[in-house]
Amino acid sequence: MQRSFKDIALLMIIALLFASFAEHYWHVAPCHYCLYQRYIFAASAFFFLIRPLHFLGFLALLAGLCLSFYHIGLEHHFWSDFLNKCQTPLANFATAVDLKNAIKEAPIVRCDQVNWRILRISATLWTAAFQMLLLLLYCMRVQCRDRKN
Questions:
Q1: pLDDT (tens digit, 9 = 90+) per residue, 77-109?
Q2: What domain range is 66 assigned to?
Q3: Phi/psi at 112 (nearest 5 deg)?
Q4: Rounded distance, CA 53 to CA 49, Å?
Q5: CA-to-CA distance for 133 and 23, rounded, in angstroms?
Q6: CA-based nearest residue to 71, from 15, 113, 130, 103
Q7: Whole-number Å distance between alpha carbons of 55 and 76
């Protein structure tokens, strides 16, 4: 049983390595929500590696799936970004330095536009599908463990 949760963690670590590879070698810049997804994946993988905390890994993975659905909705313009991570609010700039600082802090990649597709499907949609697969795998492993007990 312990091995099965390590396998889930390994799949998540491979996904993180793939995202890092895409960012650094293919120059696919992540948006804020993509970065949040990576943090959630890392935390979930960590929890799956520690036997008493595997349920926290499940919860983190579930939270990541919710974030993926939110991000998919942004990309398809089902709703606007009420968390305001995709855009910098306009403000009255007193000096040119204030304007320059606001430009530097503005997100480079917009969260409400698809910036990377794999086989014509948004990477965000692939992430959500992968998370659903991992959740299904987790539930199947827990079900098998319960049957053995």
A1: 899 887 776 765 555 667 778 767 766 665 567
A2: 2-148
A3: -95, 15
A4: 8
A5: 23
A6: 113
A7: 32
Residue 101, CB-side half-sphere exposure with 13 Å CA sphere: 8
CA angle 43, 49, 51 (to 5 degrees): 115
CATH of the domain at 8: 1.20.1550
Q: Angle, to 10 degrees, between the axis of helix 32-49 and the axis of helix 54-75? A: 160
N- to C-terminal Cα separation, the chain: 11
Token pair 């463990």: residue: 145
* Tally of domains within the chain: 1
How far is 121 from 49, CA to CA, in rounded Å? 31
> What type of residue is 121?
I
pLDDT band of 121, cuts 50, 70, 90: very high
Rg (CA), the chain: 18
